[in-house]
Amino acid sequence: MKNLTILLLAALLLTLTGCGEKAVDNKVGAEVSVQVELTPEEKFAETKRKAEAGDAVAQFELAKMYHNGRGIPIDIVKSVDWLQKAALQGEVMAQTLLGWVYRSGEGVPKDAAKAVEWYQKAAAQGDAAAQSGLGEMYRNGEGVTKDAAKAVQWYWKVAAKGGFGSAIQSRRDVCQWRGCTDR
Q: According to DSSP H, which parts of 74-164 are helical?
């Protein structure tokens, strides 16, 4: 509220000193933007409204909120439900994380075949973490027949994007989702 008062007073002062008129006459204007910080509960309510309206990005954000307990109690089942909704709409990070969820069995029965399916969808969109995950799945024979050549193909796709830096960053995103520390 204090920041809003200061901004309004500054705008009034500029107008009274003639700067406001000059800016309008010269068709040079500055849009005054007031950014109000929402409480976690307000952020949750706004995100949920958008998610329920079908916004895939909001669905993914809501999944993270339920997973991490931001503004609400942790609810892994609801988190996975919203993650699934976002992934079905093509939200690539949601697809990657859903692959991880099925691979690890967090909030769902462990299912390597479903993990591969979701990793493939995200990998097709170029997600390095999903491509790396597929490499691991083929290397270990999880949900697929063990195949070192296919594992290497997936690792090369990651490397072709500029090395494993993009995969490492994507892994950090997954790690942030899981609440782990990246060392």
A: 76-88, 92-104, 112-124, 128-140, 148-160
